[in-house]
Structure of L1 transposable element RRM domain-containing protein:
Amino acid sequence: MDTTAARMHEAEQRISDIEEKLMENNEAEKKRETKAKEDDLRIREISDPLKRNNIRIIGVPEEEEREIGVKGLHEQIIVENFPNLGKDTDIKIQEAQRSPIRFNKNRPSTRHIIVKFTKYSSKERIMKVRILKAAREKKTVTYKESPVGLSADFSAETLQVRKEWQDIFNVLNQKNMQPRILYPARLSFKIEGEIKSFPDKQKLKEFVTTKPALQEILRGTL
């Protein structure tokens, strides 16, 4: 009996040790995830303001900017799509480059062009807003009659966060809840006559628990 009891005690102790180790591992994993999120946030806070005076052009064929220059390419897109903006688009471009810089022949799509304006005064800021707003309203922007995209430029971390909102955005849009992705990556929408905004999915989850109807709408997306 004493031997059996000793073995049972030893087995229970081993199980307890394993469970304790698992708890420690879980806590360590949570800390790593929290630190990774904090690091991403710090990168976004530093990087995004540096990119605020940039415009990202998507879908222009490789080497096209070498033929007419970046300014000529930018002007042609504006004239082709937004002629009403006229001469107000005469803003100075500091530099432009493909992203990523190195071309990969196996890459299925063209690299984006990042256009950086010389300064970010009220004139440049207003014009950038007008260009991006006009692009959203037009929905289909073209270069030499081929579809291209215009968007604000963000860090890779912020782009990922904005992308993660997409499924929720689409569901809310289908329900006419006027969703928007605010700078740099906040989701806002209208509910019960009020505009609510959320910096991340965790905050949205906490809010959803207080709104059964919204919880049903977003079922499967959170």
Observations:
- The chain has a mean pLDDT of 83.
- The chain has three domains: 1-47, 52-152, 156-218.
